[in-house]
Amino acid sequence: MKAFLVHQGILEPLNEEAMKEIDDKKKKVEIETKAHSAILLSLGDEVLREVSSEEKALGLWNKLAAIYMKRSLANKLYLKKKLYTLRMDESKDLRRHLDDYKQDYS
């Protein structure tokens, strides 16, 4: 998501210092709105329900980080269980299996 925001030239709202450097209020609002919209458009329905109350891109980003970047014991145990029960589907090739593994655990 960060790479997409960089590509679109709207990463500033995720950095308070960068937003302070923009003097033009109209440009500030435009960049904030674009970043907020870009993040919302990339979310699924379940996640969208959890973060829909956030008005600013930075608040949205922080709420998503709080939800998905937790390092709680429950998350660690869940990931360990997934790892220990991981089995390769024989109908898939090894590269596809590794891609699926990396996607699930990153």
From TrEMBL:
Top-level taxon of the source organism: Eukaryota
Name listed for the protein in its UniProt record: Retrovirus-related Pol polyprotein from transposon TNT 1-94
